[in-house]
Design a protein that fits this description.
This protein is of the alpha/beta class. It is 40% helix and 14% strand. This is Cysteine desulfurase family protein.
């Protein structure tokens, strides 16, 4: 049996997504800026995708800018709004558990003279609203906080955060990295007070290399790429039509019967947590049920290095992550695990299991059986 539990790194594309991507690449391959029939057909795909995605968020299609993925969306949201609004102030607020594409964008902005306050989190990965309120200064122009933490699945109180920000200063922009949240939660940027929202397609069973940034039409932001003026001048360059159309199909499928899909995923997550508790020396870092994201379980395995366990599972065709896949090429102690107070001896012994629409209870049973077999052996080896 093969068990793929690394869906927060990337997902297997849905069949209808694959079909439309192949069709556009082989049949409807026109440039959407061209004036002939093939060009107009390609343009229709991008318009339809924008309408589908805008419909899932209840925003206007013109507020959706297609990007190359989540990292580009985060870079554009942070750097281009900060630069466009620097006359209003140079202070930004974020947290200590953000994704590298946010953290490194903020590091770049610090080099450009901006000041950044990084909020700490509690034992469950949540920021404290009173600390956010205290951090806001007259020169604060932007707050960036992730919706769902990519390592432990903590869900931040987005609407409450926005209320604190806007009460202090309605001009402060609120960016939300929703790369692990879109497709899993019903998100309403207008109602929740979100000004910018980053999403990646391959986290929702869509293609890699495509994503979008929602930008409220009132937001002052600079273009990321200059050129032919595509996407209303916000991001020049020929659109990735197959990817964009595939993302639109994936979004439509994920938000059809959405409640049932998420209850099924929560049931899988809770089942995994309950079965992990059968193994000695395992600490689960994610909350069960509705208290955290439906697709992520973080667990620490006392006495075994995560990389050793990851490869031992891989030999049995079980695929997991030793943290955020995007950071796995740069091994370092996880800021998220340190932030929630994971014991030092468990920091390098933590795995992430993440689910998608294809996972089953039988795959979890297989994974737990293998873990029960491996753990005593690996612990003896590690001690030796």
């Amino acid at each position: 049996m093969e068990a793929y539990f690394d869906n927060s790194a990337t997902t297997r594309v849905l069949e209808p997504v694959k079909d439309i991507v192949v069709k556009i690449m082989t049949e409807d391959y026109g440039n959407p800026s061209a004036k002939h029939k093939k060009g107009m057909a390609a343009e229709r795909y991008t318009k339809e995708a924008a309408e589908i995605i805008a419909g899932t968020l209840k925003v206007a299609p013109k507020e959706i800018v297609f990007t190359s993925g989540g990292s580009e969306s985060n870079n554009m949201a942070l750097i281009e709004t900060a630069m466009a609004n620097k006359r209003a102030g140079n202070h930004i607020i974020s947290t200590g558990i953000e994704h590298a594409s946010v953290y490194n964008s903020l590091a770049f902005l610090e080099e450009q003279g901006f000041s950044v306050t990084y909020l700490p989190v509690d034992a469950h990965g949540h920021i404290r609203l009173e600390e956010l309120e205290a951090a806001i200064r007259p020169e604060t122009i932007l707050v960036s906080i992730m919706y769902v933490n990519n390592e432990i699945g903590a869900v931040e109180p987005i609407e409450a955060i926005s209320k604190v920000i806007k009460k202090k200063n309605p001009s402060i922009l609120f960016h939300v990295d929703a790369i692990q949240a879109y497709g899993k939660f019903v998100i309403r940027p207008k109602r929740q007070g979100i000004d910018l929202l980053s999403v990646s397609a391959h986290k929702i069973h869509g293609p890699k290399g495509v994503g979008f940034l929602y930008i409220d039409q009132r937001v002052k932001i600079r273009p990321l790429i200059y050129g032919g003026g595509q996407q209303r001048g916000m991001r020049s360059g020929t659109e990735n039509v197959p990817g964009v159309a595939g993302m639109g199909v994936a979004a439509k499928i994920m938000y059809t019967d959405h409640g049932e899909k998420m209850q099924s995923m929560i049931a899988l997550k809770d089942y995994m947590i309950s079965r992990l508790s059968e193994i000695d020396g395992v600490t689960v870092n994610s909350l069960p049920g509705d208290f955290s994201a439906p697709q992520i379980v973080s667990a620490s395995f006392l006495g075994v290095r995560s990389e050793v366990l990851l490869h031992a599972l891989e030999e049995r065709d079980i695929y997991v992550s030793s943290g955020s896949a995007c950071s796995s090429n740069h091994p370092a102690v996880s800021g998220t695990l340190k932030g929630i107070g994971v014991k030092p001896e468990l920091l390098d012994s933590t795995l992430r299991f993440s689910f998608g629409v294809y996972n089953t209870k039988e795959e979890i049973d297989y994974c737990i059986d293998v873990l029960k077999e491996l753990m005593p052996v690996l612990r003896r080896y590690q001690r030796g």
